[in-house]
Amino acid sequence: MKNSILNYEVVSKDNIDLAIKVQNTIFPEENGAQNFIDSIGDYTYIKELIFWIVLHDENPVGIIGLYSYLEYPDDAFMGWYGVLPNSRSMGFGNEIFDFFEDYSRSQGYKNIRLYTDDIDNLDAIKLYYKKGMISEEYTNQTDVIHSIGKILILSKSLTERPTEKWDNKYLGLTAQVERQNC
What we know:
This protein is α+β, with helices and mostly antiparallel strands.
């Protein structure tokens, strides 16, 4: 990435506690610890699972992750993307998004995707639209997830082809909620 002011440190056994602390600060109602633990070991249905602590002047400012399902090898999903409250409105979110997009493209992914709800994430959703993502409501009946608002899948093509919608394919959100409640 050109002229980056941020550094990206892969989550490992050495820094997993910091990753969990950053994630819990950004998302206090959710627990991503098991996701970080999974990224250090082997996980059978995942093609790739990696997280980065985002640093500015050696201080954490955010977190970002990528996961990809074996069943959907062309799709890089953004996970636990967020900027710490005291580091917002400084352009870090924009740069972290660009890092994710560039990394995904360099690894040969054809699409980037993420899921979120439409309640507490309006600023993030505005950024996703600004970055060219399209959205659709996720209503897969075999993947029960309880949310106050709508679950949205946001997608962007990394190729010259138009962005294809997710079209309610199974995401495993029920299993994700269970991992968060470990």
